[in-house]
Design brief:
The chain is mainly α and 124 residues long. 65% of the residues lie in helices and 0% in strands. The chain has one domain (3-123). α3 crosses α6. Involved in nucleolar processing of pre-18S ribosomal RNA.
Length: 124
Amino acid sequence: MSSLASQLKNIASLDADRLTSRTGAPSSKSYLFPAKVAATQDLDAVHALGQSGFDELVQLDPQMEEFEEELFSEAAKRTDRMMLSEEENKKLDETLARCLGRLGKWIGTMAGGKCIEWLVRRFR
C-alpha cells in the first residue's frame, strides 16, 4: 500500500470514528435527563422526543413551523457542525437564536422542554 493510500485510509477511519461518536454514541449533556439516563439515549430517540415536542408547539404557535426544516427534520439529524463552514455555522447559530427566543414563552411546558432537549443534544 502506498504512503498516500495508507494516509487516506487512516483519515477515513478517523472520520468514521468521529461520525459514529457524534451520531451513534449519545451525549450525556441534557436539559431534561440526568447524565446517566441521557447517556443511554441514541440520536433517533432524542430526535423523536424533540419532534413530538415540536409538533405540539406548532399546534400552539404556528410560527414555530419556520424552524422545522433546519432544526427538527430528519435532515437535521445529519447536521454536523464540524463539517459546516464558518458561514454555515453562523447561519445555524442565528436560526438557533431565533428558535430559542421563540421557545422562551414555552420553556415551562413539556413540549418546550422536549424541543430544547433536542437542540441541546444535537446542536450543542
